[in-house]
Amino acid sequence: MEHHPCQCFKMGRFVAQLALALAIAVGGFCLALPPIGMGFIALLALVPLLVALHKKSQAVAFATGVAVGILTALVLLNALPGPHFEDESTRWVWAGLILFGVYLGMVFSLWAGVKTLTWGAILKTATFAILIEWLTFVYLPFHIGLTQYLSLGMLQISSVTGIWGVSILVWLANLSITAWLCEKKVWQPIALAVGLGTWFFGGGLLVPGTENHPSLKVALYQQQDISEERWDKSADLLILPEMAGNQLLRGSDTKDLKELSLRQLPLITSFEDDFSPKPHNVAALFAQGQESARYEKRYLFAGERRLHTPGTLPVAVPLTFKGTTLQIGLNICFDSCFPAVMRDTVTQSRADLIALPTQDPVTPNGIVQAMHSAYTPFRSAELGVPIVRVDWTVHSLATDCFGRMIVPAVWKHGAATLDVPLDQHETIYRSWGDWFLWLCLIAFLWLHISEVVHRSARNLPSAS
After folding, report:
1. Pairwise CA distance, residues 439 & 127, whole Å
2. Cβ contact 304:242 at 8 Å
3. Dist CA 425 CA 346 (whole Å)
4. What H or E segment, with its residue span, contains residue 223?
5. What span, in angstroms and rounded, lies between the C-alpha atoms of 294 and 276?
């Protein structure tokens, strides 16, 4: 079959446009995602791809999204400066970013089928993206809003809508700019994008500081082997990583952990209990030689499901501090990816601060550790409480009640002591939960049904 020269030229131009747009998207997300976190780039990184894919093949659009995920993984693994570890693995980098690519591919596929750029089409695409994020909770939660974890302005939006509202704003910014480029008569979308950019840079200026406020001196121990000489013994509380407590267990006896708390300082860690047939991964506070109530990890990660039994209830434990009693909420690692679980810890257990022992997969350049740590600022902002996350290897951190990092994340093995402000405040998300997610579901269904009804009405034969 012969091809007309004009058709070959158009095809070549499309391939070149798509390749350039793909490079921009991959480069943009490598810079926007943790650990670099230049989140403002995510507000426009997808625009060239969305322009190129509009009214094109939905299969090509899906494949392009998957390609973004694969290429982003390749670049982050090979070009990102960061710590390396002896037992590191690339498995979860590939799993997470291919999932990201599939997510993008599904949204791109819907966008490619849009024939007329209207506000309804933009909103339908954006709400669809949020529903796909919800579906990722079945395997490995992912939000495009994670790119905004360093933007104090965006974090305050999550205190109202949860992280869902931040994700939809990232999509609305990209889709709005795309609509303006494709149909320059539409000025409202670009006004929205400019407004979002202004809030990204300026919204954080409205957040009050927490200097000179009451604080808890917390020692973070980011190390696989427990060494009492490494942590600050003047701290009010020591938090060890997930499963660090197993090093001091005698079978199921926690006597050594109790003695350590009596000899040193109050501490929190996790360890395996003796539940049958499979133990729980439990966290507890040890203080003055006593052990608190135990929290059983509720969301088990990957192969952990074969080893442990999941828990069902939130737990907060009392810590005496300067004549007052603080309620320390206990969560473990993968729990932090599920906002409803962390919300239970605050609303049902009345936690003043959440301790989060963690053991992330060990990955090159700390990629997975960084991405997982990016959930912590969102959980603090959503719930209005400080959180202290302590990992085995890298990216341990603490956030205040607005989601602001108290200091940059702790780098590689070591220990740090932080003064964690104890301020907390009520948030709409804490009170109402995932109301915005349900609103997105209703909006998507309403827009989709309206579109189907309108299309059917146009296809009806006219009355003679």
Report:
1. 9
2. no
3. 11
4. none
5. 16
